[in-house]
Amino acid sequence: MDLQVEDPNVLPDDIDNAQPPILGGDFKMPSQEELLQMIEGLNMSDTEKQEIKDNIFNNIVKRVQQEGQNVQPRFNYLIVIGCVLFMIFLFAFFGYKLYRSQTEKERKREEKRKQKQQKKKHKS
Q: According to the UniProt entry, which residue ranges have a biased composition of type Basic and acidic residues (predicted)?
């Protein structure tokens, strides 16, 4: 068996597609201050430490921007759906009014026809 244990201090070659390690149930995300202290405690040059800080900051900014972009399309879809529902409501409302108007006219015509027939019966 060939088991390889990855060194947690070594970054993978494909850092952009790297998956985070599986964390236990008792894992607590470090605060910003704790994270900065951890970075300062690393055995690296100041430029490498600054590079890590910049990368973390850039990733946070990208995630915040992506979350903001994800909210915008949802809001646009809600506006479109609202407009479509409003149009359906308008068509239904005016369609019902037209139907009621047509049935009322038909009923009045029938009443007039019956009245004319009754007048003919009385005359004859």
A: 104-113
Angle in degrees, CA 35, 39, 45, rounded to 5: 165
| Number of domains composing the chain | 1
Kindly compute the dihedral angle of the four CA atoms of residues 45, 49, 50, 53, in this order, to the nearest 10 degrees.
180
Give this prediction's pTM: 0.39
What is the extent of the structural domain holding 72?
Answer: 46-123
Is 22 inside a domain boundary?
no
| Residue 87 belongs to some domain of the structure | yes
Tens of pLDDT along the chain (124 residues) come to 444 545 555 555 665 666 666 666 677 777 778 877 888 887 888 888 888 888 888 887 787 777 766 666 778 888 999 999 999 999 999 999 999 999 999 999 999 999 999 888 887 6
* Beta-carbon-side half-sphere exposure of residue 86 (alpha carbons within 13 Å): 6
